[in-house]
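Ligand-bound model needed. pyridoxal-5'-phosphate.
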Amino acid sequence: MSKATPSTSSSYAETDLANLVHPLTDHSRLAATAPLVIVAAEGCELIDERGRRILDGSAGLWTVNLGHGRADLVEAARRQMATVAYVATFGGVSSPPAIELAERIVDLAPPGLGGVFFVSGGSEANETAIKLARRHWVRDGRPEKAVVIAHDRGYHGLAGVTTTATRLDPYHGDFGPEAPQIVEVSAPYTYRCDAGVPCDPETCPVCTGSALESRIREVGGDRVAAVVVEPVFGSGGVIVPPPGYLRAVREVCDRHEVLLIVDEVITGFGRTGSWFASGAQEVTPDLLTFAKGVSSGYVPLGGVLVSDQLWDELRDPAAEPGFLMHGFTHSGHPVACAVGLANIAAIEAEGILDRVEEATATLAGLLEPLSDLPEVGEIRQAGLMVGIELVADKQTRARFPKDLTRGRQVADQARDRGLLTRGLLDDILCLAPPFTISDEQLARAVTIVGESIVATRQPV
Ligand SMILES: Cc1ncc(COP(=O)(O)O)c(C=O)c1O
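Prediction:
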């Protein structure tokens, strides 16, 4: 129970500190600084309790793709709440928004994906995909095919199995036992390639998929259920795999009868300029997960697209027992699905994917001069996903000492200068603005990033 005074515009911070447990937050540090309390938002700008406007350089968490304060999305939610706010989809109950959204998403997805299972977010989507992959092999009479191979530096969520499938060190160690049967493979991280630097993606064993193939052989193809991969690794540092990596992974999976789960929780619905990054690369996964951009974050929504084959198996009249014993209270939530439909309609009506392409080129031009800064080791960009890797030594690619927390310092400086951005692991700065960002706002964001890098230099 709260021991603090009730919230007023001036005491939000105090009441927050007294009651609110924040995800991914150092609470002792937060107490020494103060939470940033956002009371309103318009377009690409957030407004804090003191009325300060801050550019939303991360679109929340790669989420608010159409920007804040959209009347069409608000109206879609309002109308659906007034019509029927909730029905459970368990046992075959349904609602028009869930039905229509499933159809729309199947239409937009790479060919060969035939059905959608709705959830509330990315972790649930990946948990579901892993369960469906394992179920496929159980039903096929091969229950020992249960291992999931996840990539180093991949991020797939923080629920049960997905915490273990997230291959980033800081997420491990505090929470007791890890999920079994998750195995790691190197990431196609050319700047710091496990197979050696400099990395030639044409011949590198990691980038060509042969490291993955060796891993499958080591584990035994008869024990591997699935490989999971992000088309662009987001939280692991905006690692952009060389062109062809996803296709190589698909081919390796096919050779070893392993299912491919492509995690499009960030890339789905336009962030790299197409509805789905796998579709743009002409790769059809067996399971494709999405969340975030499907509703631009206005309501929690996510899902899993399943291949025609998996969908047919789920509907097989001969399957005994036929029940899919998996689901969530909010699977197919009518309000969330109504917002998803309005979000897709807006992306189409406003030519948003073309705008992403334009903004991608503009942003690339603006970022170029940052490469000259001595701290900027590499700038990676895929559509409106940018990672700026800060290093202590450009020649050797040596990182800054961890306790310097240079990336976080830069992000803090940027916040003071009016840009909300994130310092990811290993001092990698991330920019991932809403798709509706103007050229002027893009320029402002990049200027602030440059100034913040310079302002956090140690005096020599
Ligand atoms: C690629 C990817 N997968 C899964 C997730 C987990 O999504 P959620 O936080 O909605 O559970 C995230 C979240 O950032 C993500 O970036």
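The pocket of pyridoxal-5'-phosphate is lined by residues 61, 121-123, 126, 155-157, 230, 234-235, 263, 265-266, 291 (CB under 6 Å).
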